From TrEMBL:
Keyword hit for Protease: yes
Cofactor(s) named in the record: Zn(2+)
Keyword field contains Lipoprotein: no
The protein, known as: M36 family metallopeptidase
GO cellular component, one term: extracellular space
NCBIfam families listed in its UniProt record: Por_Secre_tail
Protein source organism: Hymenobacter properus
Membrane-spanning segments: none
Localization (cell): Secreted
Alphabetical GO biological process terms: proteolysis
Length: 877
């Protein structure tokens, strides 16, 4: 069952006379369990609210509607966090989530969010809902394209406190589709019946095409147990990202003595393991029961001595490697638990455990970690702390990743497109021949629409040219690829080649009902390969190609991609720390939310190795995509502090840049939260390396004191200090507040410079965190923070690309009170170009045209009010 946006949890405290002498009494939620004794932090917070009710805009009636949803104290900095919201007659008021954060001296450090004033009176003036519960339920099902029966819970009435200060009613409908793991919460307007928002509790890492996994393995997996060392795990240990990044080793007694004091196989808080399989207090790792896997419910068994030494053979299938993969997943899930607890994701703040040894927070919510249910996908199912209701447990589910077939498509001749190409075939479509190839000219689809190469229309206007040849169409989201395939077949194509919108390939599959009558094979090529083919076709000379089936390389098990494991686990961290442990179902629900960015940051941070540098290009998911370790990964651009490799800024949000949509799709929904997260992770990654430059790198990820450790602490504490439904600038301000709390504000100037460089400076405007179109990038830092010392250290400006073939972009990172002077000099000191830019133009990004210069080495000298810095630039022919 999908939990409520504000699910009733055992730790939800009600404002009552016992908490505040003589105070009003809260209206209890009808289904809420009895409230336990309130914590001192909760009492203090409610006392603060009562004492400052006037300043907060609250009446006595409003005080009676307050609910404390969670509270805890951080041991590492002494901060006390209390999270509250409002209720009317037992109905949650969405948008009134408030966080109060107190210093160790019990003074208020910060407040996030806002209460609504006179809400009970406003509610009394609202008419009865024009749309009933059943109609709302049907509207939710229709919105999700689900069958009209059997998939939704009864609708629940909630209130919405809107940004303009008014109150509205909505129905909250929880939907679990019959197929797949999704668990949706849909808000339906109680006045109009329109679906306002749909949120999936399951946070998916779906690279646009994924399906249920149906392996063809011959039989049960036999564990390859090789007893060697007690309490040992053969894994790709931290900081290795995958088997491609180094050899497996035996990790012996890896449990952290503080975070997991009784080891990784304990659940009762007493000496001795309760399980010899990959199960314990923090996680249970297994193949899903009921999924189409060879051995449902399998979990590797280490025996009485906990000897988990299983071989990984890259030449075998993912299923044959399940014991090793599940062991690796067990190690990494526990590692993420232990490390995150060191940085403040504790039992009190809502971490994932069967038993909370401290007695704080809620137990019963260890992570169910699984491999094998899906193809080419991973996801995290998030729940509130202790919210282990029926069919609603925190889960990490990782997929099996199919590799593309090598040398499937061959272009004859010596032209610019000649050669062989890898491709991903349609898994349950017509197979490619293995002996006699399909041969013909490549012909680009023209369906007569405004996007003719999409091939979405059923009747193609160039059917005569397509007939008997191989059709080529673009893979976009105007229609499903089944429609493209039907169009190609109707046009008489012998086969269809789809050009992916990204430079990686994953498993593609059709609903079996859609395969009836299909006689045309389909394969997909990467965006880069497709552009090469289309360029050759546009040149006018016929491009003759052939398609021939080949033997697929062994598929890859998601349990070996440590970066993806860390990414998925991080979703659990961010959803529980933002807005308090009860906020896991609501507080990262807005459109300008950065959940995917935080997860990518955890992935990169956990797999950083000594000797790495910030300018190195880092791809996400290179192992499961079958790429080299230097591959581009699953994001449109790699992560790097080098703006020539990753120039993303806050200005990208809401827009399409370099054919990547960072805004809305054609239906008015965020196109891809991963692209929004890409911008956020880019600035966090910059911050990490700026802190490493200042404090050094410490390979001790648990208790080290390096810049990387300090950055993780800032990120973790920033999650706690930001409001429910944060935008980019909310989260920036929370990191600044965390620096003041953790390090006395020692890094304020550095943090501002890093964020300003990516457009999140002091003059940036966020607007609504639920709107991708009302933000404005700004590249200024607050007055007084830009210093000559900072400029001389290399943090003052960026020049990219370098080397360049003629066009160079200069972007100033700090503020300047005077125009920016730029001189381009030869190596002998001769000025060959001179420019003057306003400070605003230089911070937004000024262009230098160097096409007239002879190729070679030059010096670019930049002078601002903060100082002068010179850098070398190579101009290529």
């Amino acid at each position: 069952m999908l939990p409520n946006f504000r699910a009733a949890l055992p730790y939800r405290f009600l404002l009552c006379a016992a908490l505040l002498a003589g105070g009003p009494t809260a209206v209890a939620q009808p289904t809420a369990p009895a409230a336990p004794t309130a914590s001192p932090d909760a009492v203090r917070a409610l006392g603060y609210v009562r004492a400052h009710a006037g300043a907060l805009g609250l009446s006595d009636a409003d005080l009676s509607d307050l609910v404390v949803t969670g509270s805890y104290t951080d041991a590492h900095n002494g901060l006390r966090h209390v999270f509250l919201s409002q209720r009317i007659n037992g109905h949650d008021v969405l948008g009134t989530e408030v966080g109060l954060h107190f210093s160790p001296t019990q003074t208020l450090l910060s407040r996030t969010g806002s209460f609504g004033k006179d809400l009970r009176a406003a509610a009394s003036r609202l008419p009865q809902p024009a749309v009933g519960a059943e109609a709302a339920r049907n509207a939710a099902l229709q919105h999700l394209h689900q069958a009209a029966t059997g998939t939704a819970q009864p609708a629940e009435l909630v209130y919405r406190f809107l940004p303009n200060g008014t109150l509205a009613q909505a129905w909250q409908v929880r939907v679990r589709p019959a197929q797949g793991p999704d668990a949706w919460t849909v808000l339906v307007d109680a006045a109009t019946g329109r679906a306002l928002k749909a949120r999936n509790q399951v946070i998916r890492e779906n690279p646009k095409q994924a399906s249920r996994f149906q392996p063809a393995g011959p039989g049960p997996v036999t564990p390859l147990l090789q007893p060697t060392v007690a309490n040992g795990y053969r894994v790709y240990a931290s900081p290795l990202e995958s088997p491609l990044h180094g050899a497996s080793t035996l990790a012996v007694n890896p449990a952290d003595a503080v975070a997991s004091p009784f080891g990784w196989h304990d659940t009762n808080g007493a000496t001795g393991a309760e399980y010899t399989t990959a199960r314990g207090n923090n996680t249970h790792v297994y193949t899903p029961v009921g999924a189409h896997v060879v051995t449902p419910g399998f979990s590797p068994d280490g025996g009485a001595n906990l000897e988990f030494d299983f071989a990984h053979n890259a030449a075998l299938s993912a299923q044959d490697n399940q014991p090793a993969a599940l062991t690796n997943l067990f190690y990494w899930t526990n590692l993420m638990h232990d490390l995150s607890q060191r940085y403040g994701f504790t039992e009190a703040s809502g971490n994932f455990q069967a038993t909370n040894y401290s007695g704080q927070g809620q137990g019963g919510d260890y992570i169910r970690s699984q491999v094998g249910e899906v193809y080419s996908e991973g996801y995290f199912n998030t729940t509130p702390d202790g919210g282990a209701t029926t069919n609603s447990y925190p889960e990490i589910v990782l997929g099996i990743w199919q590799m593309a077939l090598p040398n499937v498509l061959t272009v004859a001749g010596t032209g610019p497109a000649a050669g062989s190409y890898s491709a991903m075939p349609l898994a349950n479509g017509r197979p490619l021949p293995r002996t006699t190839p399909i041969t013909g000219a490549l012909v680009l689809a023209n369906d007569g629409s405004t996007t003719p190469s999409s091939g979405c229309q059923p009747a193609w206007v160039n059917a005569a040219q397509v007939r008997g040849n191989i059709a080529v169409a673009d893979f976009d989201y105007d229609c499903d690829f089944i429609e493209k395939l039907r169009g190609a077949q109707a046009a008489g194509a012998r086969a269809l080649v789809l050009v992916h919108s990204l430079d990686f390939l994953t498993h593609i599959e059709l609903d079996p009902a859609d395969t009836v009558g299909l006689r045309v094979p389909l394969v997909m090529v990467t965006h880069a390969d497709g552009q090469r083919l289309k360029a050759a076709m546009r040149a006018g000379t016929p491009v003759t190609a052939s398609l021939l089936g080949t033997t697929a390389p062994p598929d890859r098990n998601g349990g070996f991609d440590n970066g993806i494991i860390a990414h998925e686990y991080a979703h659990g961290i961010t959803t529980r720390l933002t807005g308090g442990p009860a906020g896991a179902t609501a507080c990262l629900d807005n459109e300008e939310q950065m959940g995917e960015g935080w997860s990518d940051f955890f992935e990169l941070w956990m797999t950083t190795r000594p000797g790495d540098v910030g300018t190195t290009a880092r791809g996400i998911g290179t192992y499961v995509l079958g790429q080299a370790t230097t591959g581009p990964g699953i994001r449109p651009v790699p992560y790097s502090t080098d703006m020539a490799l990753n120039a993303t800024t806050y200005a990208y949000i809401g827009h399409t840049v370099n054919n990547v949509n960072y805004g809305y799709d054609d239906f008015g929904y965020p196109y891809d939260s991963h692209y929004i997260g890409l911008v956020w992770c880019s600035v966090l990654w910059d911050l990490n390396w700026a802190m490493i430059q200042r404090y050094g790198y410490d390979a001790n990820l648990s208790t080290g004191t390096g810049g990387n450790n300090k950055t993780m602490q800032l990120v973790m504490d920033g999650l706690k200090l930001q409001p429910c439904s944060p935008g980019f600038l909310d989260a920036r301000d929370a990191i600044l507040a965390a620096d003041r709390a953790d390090f006395g504000g020692a890094n304020q100037a550095l943090i501002w410079q890093v964020f300003a460089r990516r457009g999140m400076g002091s003059n940036a405007v966020q607007g609504s965190s639920d709107d991708l179109l009302d933000n404005t990038a700004g590249f200024l830092t607050p007055t007084g923070l830009a210093t000559a010392e900072a400029l001389a250290a290399g943090a003052g400006f960026d020049l990219y690309p370098n080397p360049t073939r003629g066009q160079l972009t200069l972007r100033l990172a700090g503020a300047s009170t005077a125009p920016v002077q730029v001189a381009v000099q030869s190596v002998l000191g001769q000025v060959v170009q001179a420019h003057t830019f306003t400070a605003a133009a230089a911070m937004a990004g000024a262009t230098l045209d160097l096409h007239a210069l002879t190729p070679g080495l030059y010096l670019v000298r930049v002078t601002t009010s903060a100082g002068t810095l010179t850098r070398r630039v190579v101009v290529q022919p």
